[in-house]
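REQUEST ID: PR-0412
SUBMITTED BY: lab tech R.K.
PRIORITY: routine
TASK: structure prediction, single protein chain
INPUT:
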Amino acid sequence: MGENLKLNVMELFAGVGGFRLGLERANPDLFVVNWANQWEPSRKSQDAFDCYVRNFNKGTHVNKDIATISNEEFQAAAPDLIVGGFPCQDYSVARSLSGEKGIQGKKGVLFWEIRRAIEHTHPKYVLLENVDRLLKSPSRQRGRDFAVMLAALRDLDYSVEWRMINAAEYGFAQRRRRVFIFAYKNGLSFDSEQEQYKLKDIVFEKGFFAKPFPVKEEPYKKRTDSVDLPKDIVEISDEFSFNFHPAGVMRYGKVYTAHVDPILQEPTPLKDILIDEENVNGEFYLSKEEEEKFVYMRGPKKIERQSPDGHKYYFSEGGMSPTDSLDKPGRTMLTSEGSNNRSTHIVEVNGRKRRLTPIECERLNDFPDNWTAGMTNRMRYFCMGNALVVGLIEIMGKRIEEIEKQNKVEEVQLELITS
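STATUS: complete
OUTPUT:
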């Protein structure tokens, strides 16, 4: 029954290919990435795109601003699944000048390009990734941006699930929190199956995320909420505010959200991803001056500052451990990993302090060693700071495969009944 399953995949904002790598690990025969776009604005060198092309040789690889890609080019790719990690931006919308042409989002906001790709290709599934603050932004109208996204997907006839996942809580080597959004076309057999359940049961037991990323039966501190999204997306943009929790579901505009409590798996400690010390170049070890600088940066501080208008205030910062524990998973890696700042990982091995090497940063995100080789170390750190934990996508890919197999079984059964 499953031999001929194939899903054409379109990868947007592809970076160095974390989504593709995870899906191909899940099942390279099922997930066929036949079209991918990666473009780094305002940079002459396109390091991430070059890395992508070095590592993947099949499919169409497009290196241009997504806003310049035509609807026809999207349509020609004919995706069954669209994937992508995209920036958290201001998703406010307004009525178009003529009034009847629907809505206009701010120019340059990349979610609207994702929406355009979905609108012109109607994939079965969409899998997106974003920073966890997306659920709360903007601060002056909490939850508005995410509600606009949900309404946009609702209006394209999709149901949506989301989950904020800390990779370390499900066995990985990095305490990286990201929101994953799974949308599926209404009318699929998976949609019909989900329709049988209460929204709460989808979030806690029956949905896309609950099966591969299990949670406890009861929400954390009983935190749940529900709301009906206004039908008018401009009204949402102008007036709507709501407290979205780390997990939830939206079907036909009805939202249920809960602060789920993960059933923890043993994380991978930092010591397990370190390379052999004899292979570490001297450039990664800290000089005495750098050691002192990091002790200061990572220590507690209270500094008097003055604003341009003369107002004096204190900038305060709590202390953190002078080195990262080798017995715990790594902290969230940022794009600034390679520079001298307090968020940079510092490990102490055999009495010597050093930064993580680019290979160790790749391992933090579950990439193969030297995936980003060929660019400067600074860019290798930058690309890994932007990347996702590949193993999470592999798990989600297996869940999509399960859903797709069920779809096919039900389609065949339907054909037999009607023939």
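NOTES: DSSP finds twelve helices and 16 strands in the chain.
REVIEWED BY: pending
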